[in-house]
Amino acid sequence: MPTLKRLALLLLSLAVVSLTAPVFSQSSATPADQLRALIHAPRSPLPPGTELARLTIHGREATVDLRLPAAYLAVTFDAYASDAIVAGIVQTLQPYGLRDIHVRAADPHGVFRPISDFLPPVPRLSPQLPTNTDPAPDRPGPDNFPAPGQGQPTGALSGKTVWLSPGHGWLWSGSSWLTQRPNTYGIVEDFSNAEAVLYYLAHYLWNAGANVWLVRERSTNPAEVIVDNDDGAPTYTETGSWFTSASPGYGGLTYRYANTDGAATATATWTPTLPAAGWYPVYVWYLHSGNRAVDARFRIHHAGGDTTVSISQEVHGQTWRFLGEYYFEQGSSASVTLLNQSSDLGQVVIADAVRFGGGVGDSGEPRFEEAALSYVAFQGYTGAPNDVVARPLYAEWELAKGYANEDGVYLSWHTNCCNASGTSSYIYDGGATPGSADLRNFIHAEIVGDLRADWNPNWVDRGLLSANFGELRELSTMPGTLVEVAFHDTENPGDADDLKEPHFRQIAARAAYQGIVRYFADRDGTGVDLLPEPPTTLLARTTAPGQVTVSWNAPPAGGAGGDAAVSYKVYQSSNGRGFDNGTVANATSLTLTGVQPGELRFFRVTALNAGGESFPTPVVAVRAPTGGAAAPLLIVDGFDRLDKSAMITQDDGPTLGNTERMFLERMNRYDYAVEHAGALASCGVAFDGAVNEAVIDQVVGLGDYVALDWFVGEDSTADASLNGGERALLASYLDGGGHLLISGAEIGYDLARP
C-alpha cells in the first residue's frame, strides 16, 4: 500500500506546476530553464540532488534525461513517484508545443533508460479456466456474444467491449483513507471523474450496445444485499432438479447447477430484502467453464415487471458480473430467477450468488468513491501493487477471461491541474498498443469539437500527447488512451466553473462515446451510427374511453448530438419509477387501449436508430376518467433546470470539507409528475400529462382543461422560471376562466411580470 508520503507526492507534483507557472509568460525562459526551475522548486516531485543531464528536442518531441540520486532510485522511487515526475515534466514542457515527451534516468553505468525501468517488476495474474468438475462435458461455444437480452439496447457498439477508468478515489495511506486529489473550489477529482463516467459516459456506451466494464464500482447506491445459494430458503429457492458442485463457489462455499433444457424445467430464485426503494445494479457470481450454457437466462423481477438478460457462463466468472440496473421497491418484492431453458443443450447453468446495490467499501465510504486498488480486489483481482497499475492490470485480466474477439478498448477519464485550461489526451510513449493513437485521436477530436460547438467556441485544445504514465504503460492487448478533460483548479473564470455544470460533463461524455464509435467505424470500415437525442414535447392524454394516446416530436439531429431517430420505444409504469420493457412505435405517437377507469399510468419515451437508444424523456402521467369524459386537469412538468446551482453540497470529512457533488437523482429526477399524480389520484381526479415544451409549442391546448397543475421546481434562472411564451399562454388561459395550481421558485414574481 502507498504511504502518506507517496500520496502527498501526487498532490505536490501538481502544485509545483502552479509554483513555476508564472515563468511560462517570460519569453526568455527556455524549456531547459523551466525544467531546472521545476527541479529546484520548493515542492518539486523530483528529489534533492536531481540534475538535468540533457534536453533533446526534435520538432514536437522532447527527451528529458535526468540524473536521480542512486539511493532515491533504490529505496524511495515507486509508481506514484514516477507518474508524479512525468506529470510535472509534461506540464512544464506542454506550453512550448511539445507533445511527445520521454523521461529517462541514468542507470549506474550512465546509460539513460525510460524512468519506468527503475520500478520493480509488475506482477501480472493470468486467469486460469476453472477445472470442470460437473458431469456435463466441455463444449466451448463460438467466440461471439449471445443475442442480447431485453436488458440492454442494441447499437453501433454491440459486440464491442469498453473499459472505463475514472481516475483516483479513496486510497489507504498506511494509516488512514485519503483521496488522491484535494478539494479545489468544491471539486475533488476523485469524485467528479466517477460522477461524469457513471451518470453519463457508461450509460451512453451501454445504450449503444457496448459491453461496459469499469475499474471502479459503477453504482452510486451505497446499499448492498448479497444472496447466496447456501443461504437457503426463503432468500434462495429452487424448482426442478439441481445438483451441488464438487468445486467451491462464492465465498468458498458451494454452488448449484442444473442441466440445460429446451424448456424451463428448473429454476433458481434469489429474493433479497432491500433496505430502501431505488435503483440497484444487479450482479451475478458464478464459476465459469467450458461446459456452461452460452445463453444462461436470468429473469429480473423489478418494480416495472420482468426483464430477461442472457449471458454466457463460459466466460467472465469468479467475479461480479453486471446484469443491468433496475428500480426495486423496499422489502422483498424483488427477485432474480435463473432458468435452465437454453439453446445450448447438454450443458449446465450455474446458480451461486447475486448482489444487489453498489455497497460501502472498507473505507466506510460508498464503494464507487474508492480507488480501483480496492475495487479490483473486491472483484477478484488480488495482488495489484498500487492503484496506478491496478486499473489496466485488472482490465487486461478480466478481458483475458472472455472470448478471443471481445474487441476491448480502454479509456481513462481524468481532470487536470494546474492553472490552465482545456483538454489533452495521451497514449503511452514507449510503444502503445496498436490502435491507441487512433482511439486517442478520435476521442480527443470529438470532445474538443463538441465542447466548442455546444459549450464554448474558444475551448482550448491542449493537444495529442504521449508520455510514460503507468496506467497506459501496463496495457498489453487493447488500445488505450487517457483524457484530461479540463482543469479542476481554475475558477472565475476557469474550467472548474465548467466542471460544476452537469451539461458540460454530459457533452464531454457524449463526445467520448461518439469518439469510440468513430474509432471502431474507421477501423472496421463501417458507417458511423450515433444514438439519437431524446424525443421532445411529450404528451399523454385520454383520447377515448379506455384509450390513452402518447405523442411526442422527433428529437433534433446532427451537430454535436446524435443521428436522426428511426423509431421509438414507449415505456409504461404503474408507479412512475419502475418501467416495463417498452413498446416500439414507428411513428411519433402510440395509442394504448384497455385502460381501466380510474387507472393511473406513467410514460416515458426513448428514440431508436442503428446507433442505439437515446436517454429517456421526463415522465408524464395519465389517470383515466371514471365517467368516460375527457380528463378535466392537465399536469405540466416545467422543471427542466439542471445546472451547477443544483449541485449537492456535502461534508466529506475534516480533510476535504464541503464538496460539490453531482448526484443527479437529487438534483432533478425528471419524474416529479409521480408526486403530483399520486396526490391528485388520491383525490379521485382524472388528468392528462405533458412537459412544458408541449404547451409552448401548442401541441396541447390549455383551453381543453378546467384546471392546470403546473410545477417548475427550482427552475428560476435569470428571471425565467416561466418564459414569456409560457406567461402569455397562462394569462390567456386564466383570462378565459381557467384554474391554475402552480408551484416552484419565484412563481409569483414571474407571473406578475409582463
Verbal overview:
- It is a single chain.
- The chain is built from 16 helices and 40 strands.
- With 754 residues, the protein is α+β, with helices and mostly antiparallel strands.
- Helix 8 links the parallel strand 24 (423-428) and strand 25.
- Helix 2 packs antiparallel against helix 4.
- The longest helix is centred in the last third of the chain and has 23 residues, at 502-524.
- Residues 1-26 and 144-149 have low confidence and may be disordered.
List keywords for this structure.
754 residues; Immunoglobulin-like; alpha+beta; Jelly Rolls; globular; 28% strand
CATH architecture of the domain at 536-752: Sandwich
| Biggest sheet descriptor | 7 strands, mixed
Strand order of the largest sheet: 31-28-27-38-35-39-40
Determine Rg (CA atoms, Å): 28 Å
CATH domain class name of the domain at 536-752:
Mainly Beta
Helix content: 10-25%
CATH topology of the domain at 536-752: the name is Immunoglobulin-like
**Strand pairing plus helix content: what structural class?**
alpha+beta
Could you give the distance between the termini? 64 Å
| Number of separate helices | 16
